[in-house]
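Ticket reopened. Same input as before:
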Amino acid sequence: MTTTAKPLGLKKLALGEDRFSYGHRMCAGCGAPIVVKQVLMATDYPIIATNATGCLEVSSCIQQFTAWKIPWMHSAFENSAATASGIEAMYRSLVKQGKLEDRNVKFIAFGGDGGTYDIGFQSLSGAMERGHDMMYICYDNGAYMNTGIQRSSATPFGANTTTCPAGDVIPGKPQQRKDLTRIMAAHGIPYVAQASPSYHTDLMKKVQKAFEIKGPKFMNIIAPCNRGWRSRTNDAITLAKLAVETCYWPLYEIENGVTKVTVKPKEKKPLVDFLKPQGRFKHMFAPENEDMLKQAQEYVDAQWDRLLKESAAGESEKAE
Amino acid sequence: MSKKFWEELPQGSVVLEAGSSAKFKTGGWRSMRPKWIEENCIQCMFCWMYCPDMSVKVKIEKDNKGEDKAVRADFDFDYCKGCGICALECPGKKGKKAIVMEEEGK
Amino acid sequence: MGKIVAVTGNEACAEALRQINPDVCAAYPITPATDLMQRFSSFVNDGKVDTELVLVESEHSAMSACIGAAAAGGRVGTATSSQGLALMWEMLYIAAGTRLPIIMPLVNRALSAPLNIHGDHSDGMGARDTGWIQFYSENAQEAYDNTIQAFRIGEHLDIRLPVMVCMDGFIVSHSIERVEYIEDADVKNFVGKFEAVNPLLDLDNPKSYGPLILTDLYHEYKRAQHEVMTKVPKVVLDVAAEFEKMTGRSYGLFETYRLDDAEMAVVVMSSAAGTTKDIIDQYRDRGVKIGLLKPRMFRPFPYQEIAEALQHVKAIAVLDRADSFGGYGPLFSEITGAVMSMNSKPAMINKIFGLGGRDYLPEQAEHVIDELIEIAKTGKVETVKEYIGVRE
Ligand SMILES: Cc1ncc(C[n+]2csc(CCOP(=O)(O)OP(=O)(O)O)c2C)c(N)n1
Ligand code: SF4
Ligand code: SF4
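Engineering reply: fixed in the latest deploy. New output:
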């Protein structure tokens, strides 16, 4: 099957209609709706989406007001993937039985990091293992934002949240974040990627690529939250870019086990460039917490080095 | 017999009208207001791409080949929440921003 | 005329599901329901059904997948027991609140702790407030018949609610009984074509399922959900009438046995009703005017109809195969609720029996009836709630 991918030039894209509408009630400057609009914009395939409980869900569908122009379902917090797998199974069943026309529908399960890394992890893992033809998209804002900024396993090391506050004895989150993207890759699914809305072309290309692949796909997309990150309402895109430039949030994909860094920063910026504008890391800049900054940087460096090695291995594999 | 209010509610609380949030205007949330300075605009569409509230309007015009062409138009103040992302990300022309944030109501 | 077979309750329900051929089923193993979906899995893998079987990683996901599949717009079923149902708890409310017809045989089993795999009604009773319609079956035949009728009831356009079809773990699920199967074509014809309501798969009319509804409307949505339940009994009876025409087997909201002229009644559900009927016969032979009432539909509970059936009795013993710790047994509470509307109030006792699969023996029924005879004579109740068949 050869399909010509939808052109991703902004001028061309702007001719189309948004499938996620204004009038949603996400906070001003929230990164999540930018992620959603870019994902939906990347393709003209019909899409059916599910959504885990969380900011995106509670703000996009309230009473009779829905921002979604595609069929969409929220049922609970930990089961976006399971719900999507049921919808996808019904689609396959009805098409197979000739009860429904096959319109090449694509299925997306959205979830925040809490709904994905933590409480929804089992249902995500199960759905991916079963091989449903669907894509799971985590918009990672690094905490349980909807309930008021509690730590999740995606919360970065040191961050000040309402359940791991920067206290006198314990200064913020003691653990490093869980590397979910790699864990998903370990499922051996055909496509796993990490993206950032600041690199919209890269993000949308990944969505396009994923939709041409049959089977389970996973994308982890950084989605700044100015309330939780204690930053400014205008800096979602700037921070999502700094996350990439500091290699805190590398842009890469793992296609059939082959790793590829898709956007390599020209110059790797120090992690503090990403941390400094965010109030949640403020305490880390106190002289007595110098070591925390060091630890955070070392972790990022180690992760990035490993990724580069894997990517290089992937390159040489392709060359052979 | 007229139906009671709760009898008219959609079964299972399903929302039948797609994109109905358009009826909910969020413009009132704004404390800052973006201002578009058209002469500095290079039509890069970054503001359109990055606006979390789909509040940068687009006009469809014909290009010289007679094909549809998207052109940045003004803001949609019914929904713009005044976050300022568009202004921050706007490259503008020769260092001169095409979007500036102003205090609402000024 | 159907085929007479010797099968277990699980086998009979699996056969019903094969005949109904749902579009999507989800399955997760748990004793004693495992065997039901296992048998169904063979039907899937042998190509005997068109069902897409989603072999989920938990019961929470089983119900979530069923909810997604039902909203997508097709016929959906699953089965579970005990801890599995408990894990689904959150999703049970969502299935009902979203008005999705999902049919689920529930093989009743005790809940932990301590861990126990045998039959009692703790699981089903824990789910009584979830908004599901609940049927309790006495034997494999009833489990089979109820499963088939459940699809008609749950999917009825006036109803659109999920339905649990309960049978006692092991006692019914694993005992071989005589069952009369209906012809495939008749079952197919009886359940009819699935009619989708607001299907998510209707791409041209995109819908949003699962909005946030706060104080200004939630109460009204629940009021509407309550109203649907009030329509269920009529549909249940209509479907039963049609079912009787097809099979000759008659079903109501409950069953009465030698109750018409009874002075005393035992109220008990599911398999224990069979044992009790035998003992009632023995007492009847001795001239004791005792009868039985066996609720079939526990949700919605037919208070009025049951009150009418019991209005002439002087004493009632309600046997609960589940406890509400610190309260009366759940069935007892419902029967007292029904009795409330009666002019003359009968004396009532509540016996908790058979927990964790403890055998319900004929002598337990005899003791209960002997006590009832005393109570009917004196009008005095010594202890309202009591465990029976307990080792002392
Ligand atoms: C089973 C369950 N536990 C807890 C909650 C409460 N809850 C709702 S949303 C939420 C946080 C969501 O966090 P995340 O998934 O990170 O998404 P975000 O709100 O940050 O977008 C929590 C804890 C719930 N709805 N259900
Ligand atoms: S201020 Fe924010 S909401 Fe308003 S148009 Fe700019 S980016 Fe959109
Ligand atoms: S970002 Fe600035 S220059 Fe680009 S289209 Fe928007 S207003 Fe014009």
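The interface with chain B takes residues 10-15, 18, 20-34, 37-38, 60-70, 197, 200, 232-238 of chain A (CB under 8 Å). The mean pLDDT of chain A is 97. Please confirm and we'll close it.
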